[in-house]
Each structure stands twice: as structure tokens, then as C-alpha cells.
């Protein structure tokens, strides 16, 4: 038996705002969350890309020490958005700890800030330094730190899925969570991802010549998805969480429904671990449509992965055209905040839900002149009043991993 | 260090590092304050700083049954007998 799966709560911490209204205002007003790279006294002086999608909203994390003690910055972000989601959903504690609620949550690295402190100790050449490796440093820096800090803080006893597939981390979280509820393995899943401020990720992409460098003095003008002047991605930070529920149970308890997950696909390019692959992306979208049981003509909005690299945007535009044609509006939401890494899939899903709810489609920020090699699809050039009924949210990661989520409006 | 000085330092550490203010000297820290094995390991690090030397593996193992502030003070006094504080 297959269950319908609905989204009943959402929360995001992003470079363009924390709460729902801040984020909507930024989308409507074309506000960028990209800032100058902070001086980290380690790598920032060497990398050529001097921009970062930065969370600037001041946040007070009022977590008790017994929860804080196993958290690095990434887990703070994760637990904060999950806290907001559980509060908004109004689930009772008995259900949360019943084993029928699970967690699908991940990040790219665990906490690179904590890892950096551990490395500092390793290379300090000091015996005294050894004792500075704390008992909880592994718990703060392990790859599944977000998922298990969430289970601990909220007493969640169901399944734990913690994907860590770079840029598809949180789209996989949503997809795998969707499958867990769809096939009755869990009644509900908290899904999402987070990544903290991290200059090592900038250094990695910078060395691959994949980072933006031409707009270091005008950070708000980069990244530029699909634009002729795009010069690479901008690394960012953030977090997002969704609550997915069995539709029948959500309706029974009178939960507000923000949208329905109707399909998910995940595949691999089966080859190069870095280069984008048009065939792989096309196949992901086709598999997503098949999983949702809909035709290409039913998709009216695409949230493109669109990192603003030279090759990636072209491959994605061609894949969208091949799989969906030129009818759906296409927006690259990274234009607003850069690439929030492990959290980009869930953040872009939440932004899409907000646009569905509000009846508008945000344009791709900084898309001033469409690259002719990307021009075969229908770009969202300006803010539009438009009802999104079915959206495809696409994400692709190092390692050749591709995902496509299909979300339907429920209003 | 006198017993009073040790006790004062331990209470300071509990307040500043573990956010536990003025626990009863014979209260079970695990039962009353959720002081767990992770906290215990962190406390050993604080004790090393306090006494200015590293603990041996055996000394660390010997601490695992400690449950109260008074027992912590006893433990530090025993350590002091083996090294000058």
C-alpha cells in the first residue's frame, strides 16, 4: 500500500532571512544574501573567491547545555529549524517519541569548525594539546551529527537516515523521508539539511576554478545563474527542515498542509565524479515524472540547481528542455544566496513552497542576459504573479549524484 | 590546596562549565542534574588543568564510579597525595 505524503511544516535559516516573511520579502525585492568572505586567518587569504552566502540574521539558540554540549555550529542550525518545525506542526510529545516519527537529516562534513580545531591540535606538536581534543569532538564533527542531535534534543526514536552527498544531501533527505512515509515505514519524517560557515569548501571549489572571482567587490552581483557573465558558484551556509506526514493522519489531526510530495528520483551519472552530465540529469527528471505518475506538461515551475558554473548551467538547461520542454518557468534560486551546500535542496524546496502559497514566481537574481546556450528554456526574468501547481526541484552533487523532487500545491 | 579550596574550585567549574549552580555536596549528580559520561570525561580534563598534570589511565578509570561533589573532592585529594598541587 502506498500513502500520500504531505508537507505540514517548514522552516529555514538562509542568507536571505530566517523566518518565512523575511525570506519572502527578499525574494520579492530581489535582495541578495551574498557578502564578502570573512577573514578566517587560515584559508581566506589564499583563495581567490572572496564572497560567501552568509547568514547575517542574529540568532539566539536557547538550548540547554545537555543538548548544546554535543553540537557544533551545523547542529545548532539543524536543531533550530527542527525546533521551529515541530512547534509549528503542533505534534504531541507522545507521537514524537512513539517510534513512528523518524529523521532524515544531513550535512556535507559534520562540523568543519570542530574538525579544524582537532587538526590544529594534531599539528600543534604539543603534548598539552592532546588533552584539548574533547570527549565530544567526534559527536560534534561526525557526518550524522545533525540527525542524532535532533533525535536527542526532541526525543525522536524512529528511523534515522543521514545522507551526506554534498549538494544533494537534503534533497535526498526529503526523498528518502518521502519514501519512508509513502511505503508506511514511518507515519512522519523530519527531513532536511544544514551546513555552517566554512572556508575549506570555498578552497576546494576555488582550486577547481569553479568559484566566482570577478565580483569580489560587488558580492550581491554573484552568482549569476544562466547569465552570460556568470563566473562560478558562491559557497553559502544555511539550514532547512520539513515535516512530511502521511496525508490521512495529517488530515485526521487537522494539520495545515503546505504541499504534497508526489515524486522523487535519484540516480548517478555512472562516471565522472565532478563534471555535470546532461544525460544523467535528463534521466533523473524523467524518472521523477514517472515516479510521480505525471506528464512533463504538468510541471509549471522548475527550481534549477543552477550553480552558475560555465558548464553546469548549460548541461542543466539542455536537460530541462529535453525532459520538460520550454513551458515551465525556470528559476535558479542560488542567485539570491549562493550555494548552501548540504542544505540547498531543502531550502530551495521551502522557497518553492512559499512561492506556491503566495502565488508568485521569483526571478533568477543577476540574470541580466541569458547565455544563448541556456536560452532554450523559459527563464523567469522578472517577478511574476503566477500560480505554481506542480514544481520540479533539481539538485546535483559531486560524485555524479542527481535528484529530482516533484511537489504539488495543496491550497 | 586545602579541601575548602578544592571544593570551591570544583563548584566554580560546575557553575561555569556545566551550568550546575551550587549542587548539594552529596547529591547524585547523574540523577539530579543529568551529569553523564560525556560530562565526566570533560570534568577529568578540567581536573587535569586544575592539578596541572595529566591523569594516568588507571586514575581515569578510578573516577568512573564517582557520583557526588564530595567524592570528586576526595578523588582530587587522593591525586594530590601522589603529586604536589
Rg over alpha carbons of chain A: 20 Å
Describe the oligomeric state of these chains in a short phrase.
heterodimer
The helix count of chain B comes to 5
Category from helices, strands and their pairing of chain B: mainly alpha
- Name the CATH architecture of chain A: 3-Layer(aba) Sandwich
CATH-derived topology of chain B: Non-ribosomal Peptide Synthetase Peptidyl Carrier Protein, Chain A
Can you identify the CATH superfamily of chain B?
ACP-like
Count of separate structural domains of chain B: 1
Q: Could you tell me how far the N terminus lies from the C terminus of chain B, measured between alpha carbons in angstroms? A: 6 Å
> Quick one: biggest sheet of chain B?
none
Biggest interface, and residues per chain? A-B, 9 and 11 residues
Count of distinct strands of chain A: 15
Which bin fits the share of residues in helices of chain B?
55-70%
**Overall pLDDT of chain B:** 92
Q: What's the overall geometry of chain A?
A: globular
* Fraction of helical residues of chain A: 25-40%
Tally of DSSP helical segments of chain A: 15
**Which fold name is given in CATH as the topology of chain A?**
Peroxisomal Thiolase, Chain A, domain 1
Amino acid at each position: 500500500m502506498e500513502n500520500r505524503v504531505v508537507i505540514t511544516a517548514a522552516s529555514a535559516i538562509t542568507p536571505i532571512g530566517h523566518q518565512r516573511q523575511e525570506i519572502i520579502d527578499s525574494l520579492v525585492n530581489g535582495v541578495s544574501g551574498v557578502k564578502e568572505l570573512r577573514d578566517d586567518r587560515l584559508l581566506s587569504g589564499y583563495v581567490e573567491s572572496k564572497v560567501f552566502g552568509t547568514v547575517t540574521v542574529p540568532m539566539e539558540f536557547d538550548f540547554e547545555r545537555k543538548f548544546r554540549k554535543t553540537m557544533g555550529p551545523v547542529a545548532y542550525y539543524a536543531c533550530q529549524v527542527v525546533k521551529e518545525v515541530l512547534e509549528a506542526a503542533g505534534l504531541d510529545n507522545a507521537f514524537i517519541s512513539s517510534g513512528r516519527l523518524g529523521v532524515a537529516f544531513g550535512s556535507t562534513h559534520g562540523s568543519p569548525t570542530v574538525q579544524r580545531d582537532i587538526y590544529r591540535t594534531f599539528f600543534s606538536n604539543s603534548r598539552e594539546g592532546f588533552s584539548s581534543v574533547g570527549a565530544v569532538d567526534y559527536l560534534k564533527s561526525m557526518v550524522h551529527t545533525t540527525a542524532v542531535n535532533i533525535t536527542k534534543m526532541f526525543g525522536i526514536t524512529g528511523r534515522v537516515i543521514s545522507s551526506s552527498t554534498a549538494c544533494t544531501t537534503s534533497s535526498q533527505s526529503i526523498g528518502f523521508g518521502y519514501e519512508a512515509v509513502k511505503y508506511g515505514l514511518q507515519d512522519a519524517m523530519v527531513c532536511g539539511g544544514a551546513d555552517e560557515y566554512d572556508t575549506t569548501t570555498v578552497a576546494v571549489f576555488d582550486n577547481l576554478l569553479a568559484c566566482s572571482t570577478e565580483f569580489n567587490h560587488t558580492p550581491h552581483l554573484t552568482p549569476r545563474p544562466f547569465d552570460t557573465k556568470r563566473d562560478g558558484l558562491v559557497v553559502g551556509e544555511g539550514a532547512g527542515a520539513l515535516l512530511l506526514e502521511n496525508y490521512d493522519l495529517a488530515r485526521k489531526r487537522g494539520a495545515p498542509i503546505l504541499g504534497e510530495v508526489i515524486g522523487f528520483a535519484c540516480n548517478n551519472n555512472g562516471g565522472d565524479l565532478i563534471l555535470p552530465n546532461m544525460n544523467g540529469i535528463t534521466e533523473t527528471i524523467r524518472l521523477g515524472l514517472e515516479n510521480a505518475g505525471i506528464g512533463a506538461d504538468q510541471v509549471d515551475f522548475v527550481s534549477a540547481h543552477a550553480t552558475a558554473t560555465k558548464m553546469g548551467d548549460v548541461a542543466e538547461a539542455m536537460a530541462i528542455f529535453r525532459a520538460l520542454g520550454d513551458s515551465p518557468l525556470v528559476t535558479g534560486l542560488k542567485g539570491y544566496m549562493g550555494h548552501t551546500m548540504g542544505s540547498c535542496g531543502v531550502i530551495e524546496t521551502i522557497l518553492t513552497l512559499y512561492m506556491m502559497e503566495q502565488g508568485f514566481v521569483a526571478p533568477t537574481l543577476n540574470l541580466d542576459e541569458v547565455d544563448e546556450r541556456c536560452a532554450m528554456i523559459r527563464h523567469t526574468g522578472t517577478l511574476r504573479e503566477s500560480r505554481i501547481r506542480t514544481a520540479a526541484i533539481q539538485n546535483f552533487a559531486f560524485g555524479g549524484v542527481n535528484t529530482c523532487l516533484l511537489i504539488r500545491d495543496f491550497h | 590546596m586545602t579541601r575548602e579550596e578544592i571544593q570551591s574550585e570544583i563548584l566554580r567549574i560546575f557553575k561555569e562549565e556545566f551550568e550546575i549552580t551550587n549542587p548539594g555536596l552529596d547529591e547524585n549528580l547523574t540523577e539530579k542534574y543529568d551529569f553523564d559520561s560525556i560530562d565526566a570525561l570533560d570534568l577529568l580534563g578540567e581536573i587535569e588543568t586544575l592539578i596541572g598534570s595529566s591523569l594516568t589511565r588507571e586514575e581515569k578509570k578510578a573516577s568512573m564510579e564517582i557520583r557526588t561533589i564530595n567524592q570528586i573532592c576526595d578523588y582530587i585529594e587522593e591525586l594530590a597525595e601522589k603529586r604536589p598541587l
